[in-house]
Design a protein that fits this description.
427 residues; Immunoglobulin-like; 4 domains; five-stranded mixed sheet; 29 strands
């Protein structure tokens, strides 16, 4: 009978006698469940180049690994058994992998109250998670780590935050840049220079915009101005419908474009600008709409508050990304989270009550889930704003409507920053 140790904390030195894997597994059956034994075998084998089979003679280095993994497994089980989660509140116990992880790699979050259908938002650093892997359930959340702004080549800490209507929990991750084979982007598009005179009918005006881009790789984008009134026209100055943006991480890059607007004979219009990757159609961004009106000055846009599009929608199947439309099934609700970036620290901001325009008012119910007021503590602070949108059971034939809300600095005469989102019934 080979000599062996009975002290699980003792390290076996090279030259010690070893035992077969089958003998080890036989002894562990009285200490661990079959599930724990299966997990131990998986952990041991996953770190070896060669498969270990029952009956093999194992080396001292492998036995040390078995003891390490066993201690780690017992610690994890003890943590899980000792937790008393709050009612409904998400609780993160551990993540896998538990060391560093690259953007784009799969992360498994283990804990309680993690059902993605019950969550209002999941973020890593300043980026929302938009979809979850098959197999996610109340105690396991699976997703690919999204692209995160400002991660240097050596990696950095990013806070994982899981939120539902009862509360939230956080967990620190060490995130490394992705090895990019696909594009990830974040855009902030703002109007920076507007006409200073009242708009006249059938006349052309120039509107200058800034595009701040965080992009994972160099790419060419189309830029498309949109105006929603008949008889009005918007086009890129000089026909410059494409723009090249180099890789812009961890530092952003800024680019200026000019849109020429020709007014109609009368009335009002809303102007916006969309930027979209030529090779990765799912990567795009859009400015907020700017309200234009004949015989009126164009209000100066709010540059202190910026919104990120597209929104984060739960469930993810309720968002038509190609057309930027939130889809709501009758008699059900959809949760939409919009990230706002606020440049000024130590300031109070107020969020207006969200409203629906363009449909039957009593069939749509938008509800602000985050607090209606908040104070910033840091420059360029990101504040998620979450709204539930519910459609009455009789609303299946409703047209596409517009959800609106605004954010304004408290006691300020500055124009508030307005967010708009197209919404329609899901059929």
């Amino acid at each position: 009978m080979p000599q062996m140790t009975t002290n699980s904390s003792q390290t076996i030195q090279p030259g010690n006698l070893v035992v077969s894997m089958s003998e080890i597994l036989g002894l562990l059956k009285t200490r661990l469940s079959q599930t724990e034994i299966d997990e131990l075998i998986r952990l041991v084998i996953s770190k070896r180049k060669l498969e270990v089979r029952p009956g093999d003679v194992i080396e001292a280095s492998l036995m040390n690994q078995v003891l390490t993994e066993l201690a780690d497994l017992q610690t994890r089980v003890a943590v899980l058994e000792g937790i008393e989660p709050g009612v409904g509140i998400p609780k993160i116990v551990m993540v896998q992998p538990d060391g560093s992880i690259k953007m784009g790699e799969e992360l498994k979050v283990i804990g309680f109250n993690l059902n993605p259908n019950q969550l209002t938002s999941v973020t890593v650093g300043n980026s929302p998670v938009r979809s979850f892997g098959a197999g996610s359930h109340d105690r396991l959340l699976i997703f690919d780590v999204p692209g995160i702004l400002g991660i240097p080549s050596g990696g950095a800490t990013a806070l994982l935050k899981v939120t539902n209507r009862y509360g939230s929990d956080t967990f620190s991750l060490w995130v490394l840049p992705a090895e990019h084979t696909t594009l990830s982007t974040t855009f902030f598009i703002t109007f920076t220079q507007l006409p200073t005179e009242k708009l006249k009918a059938n006349k052309s005006y120039e509107y200058r915009l800034s595009i701040e881009a965080f992009t994972s790789m160099a790419e060419t984008y189309t830029v498309t101005p949109n105006i929603d009134a008949a008889g009005w026209k918007a086009e890129m100055k000089g026909g410059a419908s494409e723009i090249f943006i180099p890789k812009s991480q961890p530092q952003s890059s800024k680019h200026e474009v000019v849109v020429t607007v020709t007014t109609g004979a009368s009335g009002k219009a809303n102007l916006s600008l969309k930027i979209a990757s030529k090779n990765f159609p799912s990567e795009w961004g859009e400015s907020e709409s700017l309200a234009l009106e004949i015989d009126q000055l164009t209000p100066q846009p709010n540059t202190e508050i910026k919104f990120t599009k597209p929104p984060n929608v739960f469930p993810s199947s309720s968002y038509d990304q190609l057309n930027d439309v939130v889809l709501v099934e009758p008699n059900k609700k959809v949760t939409m989270t919009v990230n706002s970036t606020l440049t000024t620290p130590n300031v109070w901001y107020d969020i207006s009550t969200p409203v629906i325009e363009g449909g039957t008012a009593n069939l749509w119910t938008p509800t602000l889930k985050t607090g209606a007021a908040f104070m910033t503590t840091n420059p360029n602070e990101i504040k998620p704003i979450t709204i539930d949108v519910k459609l009455d059971s009789t609303g299946v034939n409703e047209p596409t409507v517009t959800l609106k809300f605004d954010v304004r600095r408290r006691n300020s005469a500055e124009t508030p920053a307005e967010y708009t989102q197209k919404v329609k019934p899901k059929t």
